[in-house]
Description:
Number of helices: 7
Number of domains: 1
Number of strands: 0
Strand content: under 5%
Radius of gyration: 19 Å
Order of helices and strands: HHHHHHH
Largest sheet: none
Low-confidence stretches: none
Amino acid sequence: MTRAGHAVVTLSNGLDRVCLLLAKAALVGMVCVIMLQVVSRYGLRQPPAWTEELARYLMVWGGLLGATAAFRRAADPAIARIDERGAGPRARLARLAVVLTAIIFVGPILYFSFVGPNFDLSRGFVIRMAARTSPGLGINLGFIAAAIPTVCAILLIHAAARVLDGPLARPDQELAG
């Protein structure tokens, strides 16, 4: 593997660790916020207005960041599994299919996150959301919308790493092997 290839794999592995940590933190935060909402609603009879909204935003970020970790480990949903770690033509074709599928799926989403109709940057998804504020928390919705292009960019880096080095081992594979 070239120096650039090694750098891409190293970047992907580092991003994977960060994404997995943040996804776990979002899940724990979501559970805590929902527990607060339940206790406040049924125990105190005064639920805060912001708990449901915060739980939803934590679910969005946590779910999307967790999806990147699943993709890096080839634990994402698939119609058929072909071993990508081999050196044969089937493995090369599988790696190529992963990259092409990722580009076809993620490319337009990433593009339209920033560019609107008629190539108008001011009408891109993230910019339009940045002009809005969440009703319960009062935060700029651009921070929530930023999850989509962030995850798309990470998925493309992970796709490149899967081509160069194959998927990371999943915990169930580590125990079996």
